[in-house]
Amino acid sequence: MPHLSPAVSYPLPAAVSTPKQALDLLRLPDSQLFAGAERLRQAAFGKRISLCAIINARSGNCGMDCRFCSQSRHNQTPIDTFPLLEPAVLRRRILDLARWPVRHIGIVTSGGALQQEELEQVIAVLRQLPEAVRRRVCTSFGRLAPEALRELAHEGVRRFHHNLETSRSYYPRICTTQLWEQRYATAQHVRAAGLSVCTGGLFGLGESWEDRVELAFSLRELGVDSVPINFLHPHPQTPLGDREPLPAGEALRIIALFRHILPDTTLRICGGRPETLGERQAEIFRAGANALMTGDYLTTHGCAVERDCAMIAAAGLEVTQP
Fold first, then answer.
1. Closest among 247, 257, 222 to 36, alpha carbons compared
2. Of 318, 311, 254, 248, which is closest to residue 288 (Cα–Cα)?
3. Which domain holds residue 250?
4. Quick one: what percent of the chain has pLDDT higher than 90?
5. Distance in angstroms (rounded) separating the CA atoms of residues 199 and 157
6. In this predicted model, what pLDDT tens digit does every residue of 41-84 receive, in sequence order?
7. 29 burial class (0-12, 13-18, 19+ CB within 10 angstroms)?
8. How many other CB atoms are there within 10 angstroms of residue 18's CB atom?
9. Could you give the CA distance from residue 241 to residue 159 in angstroms, rounded to a whole number?
10. Does residue 27 lie within any of the structural domains?
11. In a domain, 19, yes or no
12. Pick from 199, 141, 213, 191: which is nearest to 165 by CA?
């Protein structure tokens, strides 16, 4: 727990404007912190909850040395490794997900950046999609150059995903093959290309609350549209494989804190949700989340879309239709 100033109180629901105010919010009990977060969510999004789902379009053999990642060739996690999906397979998987009530269909590839030849293969698939499906596609192709991002925008892609992962201060302890500043610059290039920016982080890496607040303010500075909030699912044979998942209560407080810092931004709960939150998954909405990833993740299982839709309905909320 960070060092906090004594006797701090803020009228709720109020967004915070400084890192100090954000850290001071951690003095609040769950009931107050969540009440403020829930009201902020309601004010910005009403009862609407947005769903997304992803396709693992190229798996493993990544040259990055991210300490948490099962897809890094520096780690030895036993996962399925395969090159870029064949066009017909990729197209079929996109169309399969298009039948789900998901607003965004993410195509995700491992590696530092998708090569131009592979990018052209994906674009050829996108051109074959019905317009109503293509506008739902979100791409996550690593550190693409500005011209490649503009090409995606020209082809009708509306959103690009690229996480910062953690704070600038903590990032060197997580990855040495890419600078945090490079990740930040990619997010800036995404915005400059006219694409919606989906950028978030991963929690439970050993970072402090100060690191979490620092990350949230970096995302606020970038003006991102959607923030994926992921929780570490410790993978065997990775440097972080022995870490325990975050306690559910701590994970919920992270969501609530981010809602106070980013009152109008979509907070999307993604990887590690089942393992970290368990039976408390439905509390993410009370903590301020207005979106979630449904279905499986890249190398681990997630939750069935039918179960997630039932959870949303039971909370008195409604799925935003594509």
1. 257
2. 254
3. 45-319
4. 74
5. 16
6. 999 999 999 999 999 988 766 767 667 777 766 667 666 777 89
7. exposed
8. 11
9. 31
10. no
11. no
12. 199
CA distances (Å), origin 317, targets 3, 119, 219, 265, 303? 37, 38, 27, 18, 18
Question: Model-level pTM greater than 0.90?
Answer: yes
For residues 156 and 126, is the Cβ–Cβ distance under 8 A? yes
Q: Count of residues for the chain? A: 322
CATH of the domain at 54: 3.20.20.70
pLDDT of 241 reads 83
28 within domain boundaries:
no
Q: Count how many domains the chain has.
A: 1
Q: What angle do CA 17, 253, 237 make, to 5 degrees?
A: 115
Q: Which stretches of the chain score pLDDT less than 70?
A: 1-14, 60-61, 63, 65-66, 72-75, 77-79, 296-301
- 311: Cα separation from own chain's centroid: 20
* Residue 9 counted as domain residue: no
Enclosing H/E stretch for 41: helix 30-45
